[in-house]
Design goal:
Layout (H helix, E strand, L loop, with lengths): L1 H30 L2 H31 L13 H33 L6 H28 L9
Helix pairs in contact: 1-2, 1-4, 2-3, 3-4
């Protein structure tokens, strides 16, 4: 259960770093400011590292609260349990997508001098921004709608 309580504490830093990294990258590109792009790249790398840590802690947290998803657990009704599983699945799906997209973006950044990779990089950043927002939405719903890590009916 401890990992399920730590996960929501770790996540905001990773989210902030990824979002500001994307904003700095786009600003630096369109305003031709190299310092903004440097800051954006730093934030993206740091945010991706923290997102990986937050994801690992999140998976350990899911293992810690697995008893909530048991059909015999009396704390949740079957309808609430089904909805909570669905929200958790979406949260995990978008979290994995976020880490994958930003990893691909950083790989594309390495090859930015080649034809089309800079466009791919910025496209991946835009998609990554959307996946971060979706991950946050589903995670927030788990915390505020279902009261995870300590569920309420």
């Amino acid at each position: 259960m401890i990992f399920a309580q730590i996960h929501p504490i770790l996540v905001p830093f990773a989210v902030a770093m990824l979002i500001t990294g994307v904003v700095f990258e786009f600003y630096g590109r369109f305003q031709n400011e190299e310092s903004a792009r440097t800051a954006g790249g730093f934030n993206l790398r740091l945010g991706l590292a923290f997102a990986g840590v937050a994801m690992a802690v999140g998976f350990l947290g899911v293992i810690g609260i697995a008893d909530l998803f048991s059909e015999t657990d009396p704390r949740l009704s079957p309808e609430v349990r089904t909805r909570m599983r669905q929200f958790l699945l979406y949260h995990i799906l978008f979290a994995g997508s976020t880490v994958t997209v930003f990893t691909l973006a950083l790989i594309a950044f390495r090859f930015r001098k080649r034809m089309g990779f800079q466009v791919l990089y910025f496209l991946l950043l835009a998609v990554g921004l959307c996946t971060v927002m979706a991950t946050g939405y589903w995670g927030g719903e788990l915390v505020h709608r279902f009261g995870l890590p300590s569920p309420v009916q």
